[in-house]
Structure prediction request, 273 residues.
Amino acid sequence: MANSKYAYVRSFELPDSIMPSTFMIVRLDGHAFHRFSADHGFEKPNDERALRLMDAAAKQVMKAYPEVAMAFGESDEYSFLLRKTCNLYNRRSSKIASTFASLFAATYTFSWAEFFPETPLQYPPSFDGRVVAYPSSKEIIDYFAWRQADTHINNLYNTTFWALVLQGNMSTSEAHNALKGTISSQKQEILFSRFQINYNTLPDRFRKGSVLYRQEEITGIGAQVIDDIVQADEIQKKQGTSRSRKVVVVEHCDIIGRSFWEDHASILGEAAD
Prediction:
């Protein structure tokens, strides 16, 4: 083989395959997104356009990789679940993380104008990625509960913080000091008593994040065409000659409790505990 005398350099590459028969979570995070969001004028405390763009990028990852059983997103972060039986790229951590991150970033950039038609993209966004192995379904359920709890904590803080700044005429440093040491109930009281904002009535998307998973759908002749990603409450049973297919649905629902996992037991697959 030509140049075979140089092949020895491959011996310096370290193996990084994830342990077999374990679940894998691929978590992507926006790099320097505090600056990116400021440079592109994201609305505070939440910009629904940006969140929908994140969902669209996650959908593309799930479309490209049918091995992904579920995804959860909040802010500039998305987590993707691969089952125990998954052997994608021979479970090589670096390969999985890099391809997921690059596809996500490329889709985010490619789709930008659809969600921000009046805001030119000033520079390309980037996302870092990591892959973590988990031994059982318990850790997977706890992982997603952790991320959704983080969604609530961050959103409550940001909602209160920006209410103090935008409506309460505080500086950012004054708002930080006002919230220092406060607990959730105190933040909710500030929102309600000072700004007449009932936190519990804010959109579920902001408080609970986005849950993407595959759901079997019946389609038929003359049926209304449904996009690959749809709101779960828009899915209706089709009439006439029918066949089934999998579509990716997005919900903004509770995944900390057991009911979601009981209702969607197939997400964890046959290898679930």
Remarks:
- The beta strands are 23-30, 68-74, 77-82, 127-134, 210-220, 229-231, 242-251.
- The first helix runs from residue 33 to 39.
